[in-house]
Amino acid sequence: MNIHVEKDVKTFKDRQLLVRLLSYAKPYWRMVLFCIFLSFLIVVADLARPYLIKVAIDGHINGLHKPMLSAEASRSELFEAYGSVTEWNGKAYVRLEPEEAEAAAAAMPAGTEKAQIVRIEGKDWLVAGWLREGQEQAAITEEGDRPAIRAAGATLSAEPLDSTAMETFRSQDYTGFFLLGAVFLTAVVGAALLSYLQSNLLQYIGQTIIFNIREQLFHHLSRMSMSYFDRNPVGRLVVRVTQDTESLNQLYSQVVVNLIKDVIVLIGIVVVMLQLSVELALLSFTVLPFLAVLTFWYRSVIRDAQRRTRALLSRLNSFLAENLSGIRITQLFVREERQGQQFDQHNTEHYQAGMRGTVINSIFQPAIGLLGNLAIALLLWYGGASVIDGEITFGIVYAFTHYVRQFFQPLMSLAEKYNQIQTAMVGAERIFDMLDEKPAIVDSAQPKKLPQKIRGEIAFEHVWFAYNEGEWVLKDVSFTIEPGQTVAFVGATGAGKSSIIQLINRFYDIQKGSIKLDGIDIRELPLDDLRRAISIVQQDVFLFTGDIASNIRLNQEDITDEQVVEAARMVHMDDYIRALPSGYKTMLGERGINLSLGQRQLLSFARAIAFRPQILILDEATSNIDTETELVVQDALHNISAGRTTLIVAHRLSTIQHADQIIVMHKGKVREIGNHYQLLAQRGYYYRLYELQYKEQKPMPKAR
């Protein structure tokens, strides 16, 4: 089995994922609602801008030539309901919207007159009547001794307007431009400030949620059994805790609230467009069926692409982490080229999967833009003709082009948002797949309390154990270790010695039989209590990045500096540590790389001693120590094992001859039990092992 090939991740329904993801945001629901409220205000400000420009065009840039009503200046209060009133030459004038002009004129009392400003042959005229839009160009004529305007067979009296008169009629436009500009600026600045506030709140929510999820994942992983880590390489788990959680950050800090904002934008634009012109709005919406088909296609393909990309990234990281950890072996056996080829294969597959997602996005986003431009083209065709025919104003067409662009902007960003959503969904699947996998080793439903001071009796009763089903590593193993005894396990490689140590710590559970500590089945004991009573020194020493003192006490606050020094002194490391420039504060590199193998082993001895265990286990603990240092350690072991149950796994029989009892293992079974001299006297399996290690060597040939 290739450990880098990731097992199929459990798939979830979108609804299940969303419910679980939103549960993490529940503590921050007030902030989320406030951000949605801010989104509503931002949308209002954004939608107001094109409308303000439309008002400026129709109401003020082209407003001078709108139909007007006039009356004596003393009767100006008649027009206050219709807007700003301009007084000129003893009369009051008010502008009317073309579509409401006739109704307003009919509702006015006697004494009001129609009026309109027109520009003919480069000169402005005040006409006593209305000229309908879209008619042929009017002409200047005379009626009696006064000028008149002839248009569509009708002659209307007219009065030329000089620059002073035009300034008077334009004054409300200047005021309107100032007010509209102030409102426009307020909308822009307000939207920017609200967006800044919203962005900070969303980032806080997103980062806090991701922090909590990572904490949950880390604590969950720390409780998983060893069999889980046997199946999952470190690189894969690192990707789950870092990159998969980071993919959720975009979901919480940007996508969710901004998606709601986009929905508000779309609804708001639809309402405004229908209010301005139903015909133009329906014309703009003719491209929506094509958009629906495009979105359905995109949704069906992008998620699979994201799943494959994340799985291949996990495999790439696993391979990379393993090879960087074993770089010395790679260089020692000249495997650089072969490992490079394997990395190139993994990297190429990840690259190709990523490019597939890129191609899908590169199709979707331009297609959305094309549909948006098609809608604008339809607007220009139909709306332009309607402006010429006088059915709608230029300002409405201008506003529609802006609203159509605003309508398609969130749709164009949908590719990115949907990509982020699918990335988050895939990441969520992988995270929840990890969280849903329960630890194989858990506390009993009704655990028995372990006494603070245990005796240290260990009993194996007919124990059967296999890492993989049917492949028995231990077969009907039974023995008893009395409190305070020093017991050694010997045997060939694969005999099951280290498996016994793993089982005592309950890193794995047995399939048959029982293991008891002081007469209590260890499956009935709380894991923390069990492991707190045991210290183990292994052949493969793991040191954390940090100083020497923290590696001895492992951040256990109740272990004092004096106890740390005493532990180092007992294994004869104190003098060496004090000779270092920073003493016990000397920083160690990754895995203690700046120490020799023997020094790392001695440091692990000091760690075990500092915790003052009631049971001490040495699993090939002296294999990396030279003979001279081994004698020093053996002397220390006599001191620290006094009054403690001590278990030793060793290949070198010289290190266990002092043991009270030696258990000889062979092919998963207990073959012999006794002390060193008893086993030699039996002339059995132990005798043969001893003979192989200590048989007389032939003398070396003399130098010639």
Automatic annotation (TrEMBL):
It is found in: Cell membrane. GO terms for molecular function: ABC-type oligopeptide transporter activity; ATP binding; ATP hydrolysis activity. One of its GO terms (cellular component) is plasma membrane. The keyword Transport applies. Residues 33-423 form the ABC transmembrane type-1 domain. Residues 458-692 form the ABC transporter domain. Keywords: ATP-binding, Membrane, Nucleotide-binding, Transmembrane, Transmembrane helix, Transport. It comes from the Bacteria. SMART domains: AAA. InterPro entries: AAA+_ATPase, ABC1_TM_dom, ABC1_TM_sf, ABC_transporter-like_ATP-bd, ABC_transporter-like_CS, P-loop_NTPase, Type_1_exporter. Pfam families: ABC_membrane (PF00664), ABC_tran (PF00005). The chain crosses the membrane at residues 28-48, 176-195, 255-274, 280-298, 363-383. It is a multi-pass membrane protein. PANTHER family: ATP-BINDING CASSETTE SUB-FAMILY B MEMBER 10, MITOCHONDRIAL, ATP-DEPENDENT PERMEASE MDL1, MITOCHONDRIAL. This is ABC transporter. It comes from Paenibacillus naphthalenovorans. The lineage of its organism: Bacteria, Bacillati, Bacillota, Bacilli, Bacillales.
